């Protein structure tokens, strides 16, 4: 468990199949999770970024914006109720906790909606799932309130009000 922005999170799971864990993790970070063909998103990503070695690891800093856009397009193609809109990466900030080096992590993007993820073993991404209810008895591994290394990961002023579930902000296609 980790504390970020005064909220407790636990690590979820993502498929490492074909090194698509970043796509699968970001897909699951939306509420509700985006249903799509992850391999198809990967193929489109490789076409957009010729520097990606097919089947190799994806990097958060270099690929997150394209993945968000492609997830929006994939969602549109899956018959979602949100048909006719697309995801704009400018709305998002990805907060990535490093589970191997407690107190470390990355923040990419500067949008107003945070998506929380973790990096395990230096190269595998998983979604962070917010723990609801009484978390007073949970032992946490990382705490942004007391760990100087995580101070840069504090993404908003703490409040006593829990934030709502991460909505899927959208823009109409042009």
Question: Would you mind describing this structure in some detail?
Answer:
The chain is of the alpha/beta class. The protein contains 3 helices and 7 strands, in the order E-E-H-H-H-E-E-E-E-E. The protein has a 7-stranded mixed sheet. The model is unreliable at 142-165 (pLDDT under 50).
Low-confidence stretches: 142-165
Strand content: 15-25%
- From the alpha-carbon coordinates, what is the Rg to the nearest angstrom? 16 Å
Would you count the extended β strands for me? 7
Strand arrangement across the biggest beta sheet: 4-3-5-6-2-1-7
Please render the helix and strand layout as text.
Layout: E1 2-4, E2 7-11, H1 21-28, H2 38-48, H3 60-77, E3 92-98, E4 105-108, E5 113-120, E6 124-130, E7 142-143
Parallel strand pairs: 1-7, 3-5
Antiparallel strand pairs: 1-2, 2-6, 3-4, 5-6
Helix pairs in contact: 1-3, 2-3
Features:
174 residues; alpha/beta; 3 helices; globular
Briefly say what this structure is.
It contains 3 helices and 7 strands, in the order ββαααβββββ. It is of the alpha/beta class and 174 residues long. The longest helix is centred in the middle third of the chain and has 18 residues, at 60-77.
